[in-house]
UniProtKB/TrEMBL annotation:
Residue ranges of every copy of the SET domain listed in the record: 23-172, 290-444
Gene3D superfamilies listed in its UniProt record: SET domain
InterPro entries noted in UniProt: SET_dom, SET_dom_sf
Species assigned in the record: Fragilariopsis cylindrus CCMP1102
Name by which UniProt lists this protein: SET domain-containing protein
């Protein structure tokens, strides 16, 4: 059962303006004290299982600690660490994630994943599985590797959500238990709140039914006194003795509300009313986030894009975007070669070839600064570029919306290492935009020049064979009977960056010595859905297990095609290729008010990127 909210939606609020009527999701100060901004449901009741937000993307940040190790003196300041998700969270198979990526991949999730807060007892949304695709680009497109393949992170309601209610996503218990220095000992769902409810119910029962008290004439004030003392004792123990007790921390500080809280569902919901805002408040303090939705871009080679969900008048807000700042663009370098150092450890070859993390393409930069400003917000990361046909621009948000507007007047070195966000931009319509129009901004002349050069120099035939398909595409096609699988007589899959495997459960039932999935090749097709297969078995033929494994080959007859799957070879995906386009979006000159104050000289690689 859910408590009913104390604030009510007045009819006059709803009819204030069109945006208030239509806006389905708001960005506004969170109901959690000191939590910054949060996301709220707008003017609609959401039933359980309804979609709350559509199609967010995930942008992989690959093995960053390895790439920057011993290179930057201060690694502490990577603000994205507070906004990214461990790739394990998403239940990807190894094939989906790419074998080389499994070891250390963080996923920036710029929509709900970054903008919504987590309040473990009031989680009201969960996400659908992520989809993986190259957005339908032709195989020879210069756009491959320049945008993320991970998309479709839609969130649905796990409980009914009222209009104006804050949206809470689960960051997972580990997020809080590993950050006690920031959050203290927060109660966790189920066990801690249930125990707290039990303590409070027991206390109330003792007081209600205590015979001694009744014998003394059922003295109401005496009962209240005892109950007050008991509560004060519990709070004292919790604050001064066991402040690490998550259970005691669930006991409300205000004794007068305890009975209501227990009646309304228990301590887990004690902040429920606070988390539901009046729509008038949201209109005043918040900004609409769902004026855009994801779709296939109308621009060739651009991948996905953002489209207006409703009419947006000239000067109207398209989307708000708080900014994650990175003081030094070199944080985003990815070295492409490995070498062994004097201790025989594999390390990045810092003199060798390098490229940039994909997220660079989603961030704003200025050619005279090392600063990167990476926006988050609902789907605003999907806004593409057009020099001629832009209909939107960025501008600094009003001061009162930003936590630290004063940063704009201070040198980066003063605030660049701050471990929280402080700035925000708004995407604003430069003309009337009709529903379903693609939202486009001008990324700036540096970007345009870089893209034009990329397209001119891109030589598909030198970069990829015409047969290349990443493993995640082959793994869908493998179930399609019409899709021709290559045999050993054909071109080897390895030449195209992938390896074929056979599933363990099938091989094992025929040959018990095969205990894992095996790399395998098709020798020939025997009949419909029947193949002769060579499994490449790695066997340990030395009893004492001191020698290395040697390769063995085992043949299997009559193998059906659904036991095949593909894996990418290490670093074979588009995002790892040096030919993949990398360039940040440029911050317009007029938004860089005091360039001389902002400047940190680009001493190393950022020079070659931005000049
Ligand atoms: C901020 S992201 C925009 C979202 C991206 N299209 C996606 O699918 O995730 C910037 C990237 O989009 C692509 N892009 C944006 N505008 C483009 C354009 N006019 N032409 C080609 N590619 C474009 C480039 O790959 C660029 O690096």
């Amino acid at each position: 059962m859910f408590p009913t909210r104390t604030t009510s939606t007045s009819a006059s609020t709803i009819f204030v303006n069109a945006a208030a009527i239509e806006c389905g999701v708001y960005l506004a100060p969170s109901s959690i004290p000191f939590a910054g901004l949060g996301m709220y449901a707008g003017n609609r009741s959401i039933s359980r299982n309804d979609i709350v937000t559509y199609g967010d993307i995930l942008i992989p940040i690959v093995e960053r600690p390895w790439h920057i190790e011993r290179r930057l003196s201060d690694q502490r300041n990577f603000l994205w660490d507070e906004y990214i998700w461990n790739a394990d969270t998403f239940d990807f198979t190894d094939e989906e994630l790419g074998e080389d990526l499994v070891s250390d991949v963080a996923m920036a999730s710029p929509g709900v994943g970054a903008a919504a807060n987590s309040y473990m007892s009031m989680i009201n949304v969960d996400d659908y599985p992520i989809k993986i695709s190259r957005a339908g680009l032709p195989p020879d497109s210069p756009g491959h590797g320049a945008f993320t393949i991970y998309h479709g992170r839609s969130f649905y309601a796990t409980t009914p959500i009222e209009p104006g209610q804050e949206i809470f996503v689960s960051y997972g218990e580990d997020y809080f238990t590993s950050r006690t220095h920031t959050y203290g000992y927060l109660p966790m769902p189920d066990r801690d709140y249930e125990r707290a409810d039990h303590i409070l119910n027991t206390g109330l029962n003792i007081i209600r039914h205590n015979k001694n008290i009744t014998a003394k004439g059922d003295d109401e004030s005496l009962r209240e006194e005892i109950w007050n003392d008991a509560h004060a004792l519990i709070k004292d123990i919790s604050e001064n003795i066991f402040n690490t007790s998550r259970i005691l921390n669930a006991i409300p500080a205000n004794i007068s509300v305890i009975e209501d809280i227990l009646e309304d569902g228990g301590t887990a919901y004690q902040d429920y009313n606070r988390s539901v805002k009046d729509l008038k408040w949201l209109e005043e303090h918040g900004q609409c986030m769902d004026n855009i939705i994801v779709g296939r871009s109308t621009i060739p080679d651009a991948g996905r894009g953002a489209f207006a969900t409703r009419y947006i008048p000239s000067g109207g807000l398209v989307s708000p975007a708080p900014l994650v700042h990175i003081d030094d663009i070199d944080n985003m370098v990815m070295f492409m070669e490995h070498v062994y150092n004097e201790d025989d450890d594999l390390v990045p070859n810092r003199r060798g070839e390098y490229t940039w993390q994909l997220i660079l393409n989603y961030c704003f930069a200025h050619h005279q600064s090392t600063l990167l400003l990476c926006p988050y917000g609902l789907l605003s990361s999907l806004i593409n570029h057009s020099k001629e046909n832009f209909n939107t621009k960025i501008q600094w948000s009003e001061d009162h919306r930003m936590r630290h507007p004063e940063w704009l007047e201070e040198p980066i070195k003063e605030w660049g290492l701050e471990f929280h966000t402080g700035l925000q931009i708004d995407f604003v319509a430069t003309r009337d935009i009709e529903a379903n129009e693609e939202i486009l901004i001008d990324y700036g002349s540096f970007w345009q020049k870089a893209w034009d050069n990329h397209v001119e120099e891109f030589r598909f035939e030198e970069h990829r064979s015409e047969y290349y398909r990443p493993a995640y595409e082959l793994n869908e096609l493998v179930f399609n009977d019409d899709f021709e699988l290559r045999t050993e007589k054909d071109r080897a899959y390895e030449l195209d960056g992938v390896q074929m495997h056979c599933r363990r459960w099938y091989l094992h039932q025929i040959n018990k010595r095969l205990v894992g999935d095996q790399a395998c090749n098709i020798v020939r097709k025997l009949g419909e859905d029947s193949y002769l297969v060579r499994a490449i078995r790695w066997k340990d033929d030395n009893e004492d297990r001191t020698t290395s494994f040697s390769q063995d080959h085992v043949l299997f007859w009559g193998v059906p095609r659904d036991i095949f799957y593909f894996e990418d070879l290490p670093n074979s995906r588009d995002i790892h290729q040096q030919w993949a386009f990398r360039h940040p979006i440029m911050i317009p000159e007029e938004m860089f008010p005091n360039v001389s104050l902002f400047v940190l000289l680009c001493v190393s690689s950022c020079h070659s990127l931005l000049s």
